[in-house]
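Write out a record, focusing on structure:
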Amino acid sequence: MNVQVVKTLLLATSVTVVALAVILFPEHTLEASNSGLSMWWTIVFPSLLPFFIISELLISIGVVRFIGILLEPLMRPLFRVPGAGAFVLAMGIASGFPAGAKYTAHLRLNKDITAIEGERLVSFTNCSNPLFIFAAVAVGFFHNPALGVILAAAHYTGNILVGLVMRFHHPEVKEYKETRRSNQSRVTQAFVALHETRISDNRPFGKMMGDAVHSSIKTLLMVGGFIILFSVLNELIGVIGVAAFLAGILRTALLLLQLPPELDIPLLSGLFEITLGSRLSSESSAPLLAQAMITSFILAFNGFSVQAQVASILADTDIRFKPFFYARLLHGGFAAVLTLVLWKPIYINLLSSGAVTLPVFNRNDPLTMLETLYFLLQQTGAWITCFFLVIFIVLTITRNRTSSS
C-alpha cells in the first residue's frame, strides 16, 4: 500500500477518534481546556510578548546583522552557523520556546541563513527559559530552589552539546565563505551593515512598532492554541485508556534504565506537555535524583505541544522538522545524563552541604527576583494578556481598513 495512503488513513482515523472522545467526554475536555488556557493566559503570553516585540524591532533595525558580523568568528567554527545565530541562542534562552524557532525562521525568510544552517540552528536554540526552570519547576513544583541549579546546568549544557553534534549535520555542504572588505575592520563593517539595514527598511518607527506587536501577538495566539489542544489530548488519552498502554511501554524502558517504574505516568505526560509532566514528576514517590533526571529529559524534549508549535513555525520555510525532532531526543539524553553526573559534585557536595553560600536560594530571605516575577505574572498576567489582545484587535482592524482603501 502507498505510504501516502497509509498516512491519510492514520490521520483521518486519529482525528476522528479525538473528535469522538471530545464529544463523549465533554467534562474532561472542558477541564483540560481551562487548564491549558489558564497557563497561556497568565504565564506564557505576558512572559513571552516583551521578548518577541523587542526581538522583532532588533531584527528590523539591523542590530541582529550587527551582532552576526561581530560573532561570525565564534559561531561559524563551533556550530557552523552564521554569527546571527548567537542572537537566536541568547533570545531562545532568555524567552524560552518557541522563540528559537521563530527567530531561526525569520533569518531564513530574510535569506540570512541557508536551510541546512537553519536546521542546525533551530536544533539547539529552542529551550526552556530560566524563569520556568527556577520559579515554576524548582520552586513551584519541587519546593527546592537549589534543584534549579542542577536542572538549568544540565539543560543549557546539553543544549550546547547538541549544537556541537549538529554541526556535523550534512557535512558535505560546503562552508560559507565570509566576504569582507580588506580595508574595513569587523566592527566598522558591522556598523555599516546596521546602518544599511535601517535605511533599507523605510517604515516609520511607529509602523515598525505596530508590525512588531501584531506579529508577536499572532505567533502567541498560535502558541496558545497548541497548548490548549495538547492539554486536551493529554487528558483524553488517559480517559479512553490509551495512557495505560503507553505507560506500560515506558515502564519497561524505565526498568531497563534502572529508574523507578512509578515515573511512567509523569514521563508520558511530559512527552505531551512539559508543565504537567514536571509537576507529576515532583509529586511521585521516586527518589529525588530520579525525579530530577526525568524532569531534565522532559524539559529538553520540549513535549509534543512545543514541537508542534515549532513545526508550525518552520512550515513557512524550507527548514525541515525531522532534524529538530532528533535533536530533541539527543538533548533529552544529554540532559538526563548530565543531571546524574552533576548530582553528587554540585547538588550533594556543594548545594546541600552548604559549602557554597547562595543567598538567592535561602528560603528565609524574601522572594528572589525570578520567584517575584513568576508571582506577579500569576496575579496580573491575565490583565496584561487582555490589554494586548485589545491592541491586537485594533491593529488588525486598522490594517484591514488601510489595505481595503
About this structure: Residues 20-170+182-404 form one domain. The chain has one domain: 20-170+182-404. The radius of gyration is 22 Å.
